[in-house]
Specification:
Shape: globular
Distance between the termini: 41 Å
Helix content: 25-40%
Strand content: 15-25%
Strand order of the largest sheet: 3-2-1-4-5-7-11
Number of helices: 11
Number of strands: 14
Order of helices and strands: EHEEHEHHEEHEEHEEHHEEHEEHH
CATH class: Alpha Beta
Structural class: alpha/beta
Largest sheet: 7 strands, parallel
CATH topology: Rossmann fold
Radius of gyration: 19 Å
CATH architecture: 3-Layer(aba) Sandwich
Number of domains: 1
Length: 312
């Protein structure tokens, strides 16, 4: 019998890739989403009899409880994602990113499986030398990262849970986000031809949105050996500074110019190098490179030229 998977926030940037992939793998998938961005990114799978969609708010017990009862596996993607959006609505961020997940964990049985995305932005400015493994101390800077750290601590008190600390995600999705760093810089390269960099030496790790979908499927298939663990998920060859990222984009868009500004601070003070060795030791390998993602973004931005595809 096929597992039934509940994906909250399943019409978002990640879910719009993951949900069709899960259906293609033969799972029954329920999506709960409030459609706050007026997206229609799952239109093309409405003909699938294994797909169920519910419009609602994950913070409401009367909404989430009946769906949880029908689920074998839960993937809670619903969140106010990113520091800027959380700063715009800190109360909404806390109730969605923390309180709603606490409610969900309380309603679940011990037998139900949970695979949750958290964030490697929790490393903040990293440890000495900025090299971070899953055992490195967490130094969240933003409200978004702080809430994710708190909920990860609660999540890992469960036996049947996996936490994926995702790197900065990039790539095209039916519910596009142009405000993510690679997506943003490539958009600026295509449409503006330039970008101004503050603290261009700051490094972070990256991962393609389709590899995020793949790691959740990998976690489901290997749940027995992976449960109870936290895994960094990113491209091991993409621990790059903002300047490095611009140089890679410039290879595909030669006209792109970046200016390193010596005065001013980046509001996002993250700066770290992340090890992905632990997830790779489970047999998971990323398939989509930074060059692949930039190439597809360049194609996609022939169709997208407005600000409706960010989170702020």
């Amino acid at each position: 019998m096929s597992h039934t998977i509940l994906v909250t926030g399943g019409a978002g940037y990640l879910g719009s890739i993951l949900v069709p992939d899960l259906l293609s793998s033969g799972y029954k998938v329920m999506v709960l989403d409030n459609f706050m961005f007026k997206q229609s990114s799952l239109n093309h799978i409405c003909n699938n009899s294994n797909f169920e969609i519910v419009k609602g708010d994950i913070r409401l017990k009367d909404t989430i409880a009946p769906l949880l009862k029908k689920a074998d596996i839960v993937i809670p993607l619903a969140a106010l994602v990113g520091a800027p959006l959380c700063n715009l609505d800190p109360i909404g961020a806390s109730t969605t990113n923390h309180d709603a997940i606490t409610l969900m964990l309380r309603l679940l049985s011990k037998q139900q499986l949970v695979l949750m995305p958290t964030t490697n932005s929790a490393y903040g400015t990293g440890d000495k030398g900025n090299y971070c493994t899953e055992e490195s101390p967490l130094k969240p800077i933003s409200l978004y990262a702080t809430e994710k750290v708190a909920i990860e601590n609660e999540l890992m008190q469960r036996e049947n849970a996996i936490s994926f600390r995702l790197a900065t995600v990039f790539g095209m999705s039916p519910r596009m986000r142009t405000d993510l760093l690679v997506n943003d810089f490539t958009y600026r390269a295509v449409n503006d031809g330039f970008v101004v960099l503050f603290e261009s030496h700051f490094k972070r790790n990256y991962v393609h949105v389709r590899d995020v979908s793949r790691v959740f499927q990998h976690g489901i298939k290997n749940f027995v050996s992976m449960k109870g663990h936290i895994f960094n998920v990113g491209l091991s060859d993409a621990n790059l500074s903002k300047k490095d990222l611009c140089e890679i984009i410039k290879k595909q868009i030669p006209k792109f110019v970046y200016v390193e500004e010596q005065v001013g601070k980046d509001p996002d003070q993250r700066n770290y190098i992340v090890s992905n060795q632990k997830i790779e030791n489970t047999g998971f390998k990323t398939q989509f490179s930074l060059d692949d993602g930039i190439r597809e973004l360049i194609k996609g931005y022939q169709m997208i030229k407005n600000s409706n595809y960010g989170n702020i």
